[in-house]
Amino acid sequence: MSEIDKLEFVGREEHLNRIITLVQKANTLHVVLVEGRGGIGKTWLLNELQNRLNQVNIGTSEIIDCDTPVFNDAEDLCTQIAKQLYDNTYQEWLLRLRQLREDENHLSQTAYQEERRQLEKFLVDEINRKSKQQRLVFLIDTVEKLGQAERRTEVWEYIGNLCQQLDNAVLILAGRPSIARQILEKSFIEAELTYLELNEFTHEDVQTYILSKEEQLHFTLGKDLVQKIIVLSGGSPIMIEFGVEYAYREVIPDWLESEDIETIPARLEKTGGFEAEMVRHITQLRTSMDRLTLLLSRIYPLDSSDIANLLELSIEDAKKLFIDAQSYFFIKPVMSGNQISLHDIVRDLVNKFVWSDIDPDLEWRKRDSRIAAKYFEKKDYQLGPQKRILEVQLYSDNSNKAANIEFLIEELKQLREFNTMRWLWNALYADPTIGFETWHEVTNTIRSQSKKFSFVNQLLAVVKQFEKDLNFDQRFKLIIFEAKLVHALKDKGTTENEVRKLEAMLAEKSSNSSHQPDLCNVLGMLNAKLHLYDEALKYQQKCLSLVQGKKLASAIPGVANQVGYLYRQLNNFNEAEKYYKLGWDAAMEVDTPNKGLTQVMASIQNNLGYLYGLQKNYIKSEQCFKAAIDMWSSVETEREIANAEIASATISVNEGNYVKAKQLLERALSRCNNEEDDNRILCRAYFHLGLNQWFSAEVLNEAVWDVTQVKWDLDVLSQAQDALEKSLKLAEKYGLEEELPGIWHQTASVYWHLGFQKCDRSLQEQALKLNDRSYHTSLEYNDRRYAIDSLVGKAEFDYYAKAYQHISDYARELSDRFQSYQNTYQLYFGRMLRIEGDVAFQQANYDLAFAKYAQGIPQIFQDGGFGPYSIQHELNLLQKKIERLPIELSKTLIQQLKHQWQDNKALKEWCDQQMFLTRIRATKQPSSHA
Known about the structure:
Layout (H helix, E strand, L loop, with lengths): L2 H4 L6 H11 L6 E6 L6 H14 L7 E3 L8 H10 L3 H17 L5 H23 L4 E6 L10 H13 L4 E7 L4 H8 L5 E5 L5 H15 L5 H11 L3 H12 L5 H5 L5 H8 L2 H7 L7 H9 L7 H7 L4 H11 L5 E4 L4 E4 L1 H15 L4 H34 L2 H32 L1 H19 L2 H12 L7 H18 L2 H17 L7 H14 L3 H17 L6 H14 L3 H16 L6 H20 L3 H17 L3 H18 L2 H13 L4 H22 L1 E2 L11 E2 L1 H20 L6 H19 L2 H20 L3 H17 L6 H12 L7 H17 L3 H18 L7 H13 L3 H14 L4 H18 L8
Parallel strand pairs: 1-4, 1-5, 2-3, 3-4
Antiparallel strand pairs: 6-7, 8-9
């Protein structure tokens, strides 16, 4: 029992009785909000309430104190509530909460909010399950500290919504005045919400309180001192407590006993008031308790082991101090009594009045933080192996123990994250310049390797507290770090805003600024994310020029690789190859490659493999993909190996090697054992698997002369549908905005062919909607490839449906909106012309049809195409069309094509072949267009 439990409860009987009456009303929900300024007795009220309810056999929760740094959001409060329920409830809650937090920056906003609602529902159901057996009372203190300041409205709206779903429960919330009251009053009707305000004690209450305290301590203050405390405390319980207890412990100021009550106010005006005097004795540092109070004013909560290390005490002395400290009214046990903290009002007073006196230049506090940073760093590295030991047990033990081990791992993760935050905060406080470098190294590792972005954002909030103390270079480094977070996590609007901000910064920099390479590099990354490849290339080329000029050899391979990638996106294959090889040659200059350089070299080989594949050089392509996979295997990077297999499969699809492509894609999928971490890889693998199955579903028939006659293996086409729908589901769930236009368009194509062959109009309607969505989203996101592809898709679908009237409009829109990209996307411009030609052919306007073919086929030839859109496929259909025409007309049209194709040797030879075949046909029988 704590000392506060032993005091006679005074001055709040009316409030107390009112709350107890509300609690005793069974089968109702009620929320009680108790507000009052710091030190007014809110915690005392909760303690007394807990005691009295226990006396009448109404159980309550532990007092959940939000005045600890782990309370970052509403879910942290829910964690403590879950702890009061069943053990398995707490365990499952903790594991699901970790999943939610890891998903926050992976999932789309819609999917994330749905997962959050499901987690909330789980807790509500568990609370209501237990409340069917007994009335539940939750006591929650210092609620004004709950959540980060900028998100408190959202936190309280969440709590209000959660409480509304409870059946037989009472939540008693105590804290200083805050936004909580305003929000809760909107959430609940008057019968469900009670608001109580605690004010200062009356003189009579103070006298009763002091009498109780004297009896507890077997100590008499004396009438004169009692009168002084009554006047000076202003009826504040915590100030009364200070006066009485410090008199008992003989640390009360001499003037309080010796001076007259009439002269004391003048003295206090000069020294900061009665509150200041009640903590100023700590400046003398006469006891270990004084040192502990100073420590807890800055670093909290602490257990006995922390105290031993930070105050440099023996374990035995620290344990004794830990126990003794809890006899002081301003020390409170937290986290189930395993740690202690300082009452928040006392912490405020110590920071305001004590530290300013004894440490005006902050050197003492910096020294303490240096010690703390070293201690928490050491503790951080000790926690890592503990987690790995548990993970080994998880995979080796039987399934009955697995859930408990997962829970222990989760608790350890939480402990380590909290410890890491304390380590980095103290490192930054001790020396912001040195501390920032530690912060950046640790946080960047978490960002790039473990990708725990919710934790990264918490660490970002830590460093932001010290931003003004960083030097210019470090503030810039922080800006680049945040920009990379935007690149990894944020939506189009946020990315565009970040680009504008960084472009303004770049405009302000001098031409020889050391920061220009980093600015240009991240601007290139952000513009590439927005599909603004020309802009991205401009910045990456400038970055490359700068790092070459500054002879930053380690940076050249990565930047040259990015330049090559952008040229490839713009279909400039020669320049792409040139820069990939530039990056490779620069990397080869390094005698001993580290892991980072190995990954860059593997990426270059992977990109070269893809490039050679697009150029139909399949042998070189295969060699490069193998080299990339071997390099990534050497550094055990399964994700990157999967990416290489997907890229290799894409080339195999283009080559028409569908069996090999399927094997590669299935192998890539098998490497992904965690959807949350691997969602992007899974999304792409299923996307390309869908394309592969679609293209391989074509039933070959040499008699087909029009695309509408092509038949598909419906089972294989359904497999394509399944894979593309999985890809779409992942993209929508995880907010992979840049993947959506392609998935929508290709899924639309599969839906269309399924619907057309099965005469299922609903599937065709879905196809039209998805393709239209792809088109408009592509325009919004500057995805020109799929904007053009889906516009051609509109014409293709209309051609199948014999709705010819709008096709010329699509062709005109393609020309008007995208003409400057014709050389980059020749396949699609060629297909649009071919579709126009097919319309004219169907209408027997053969001159127009072959004029369109004459323009379109060379563009398809130049690209080569793929699957049903390959040049061979197109030429086969054109050959069958020619065979349907009268002999002389066929000869005339072939001659026209040959004349138009004079500069293309292969197509001219094709015309000669068709002319000879037509002559052979003439010896047999005439043909007519049917």
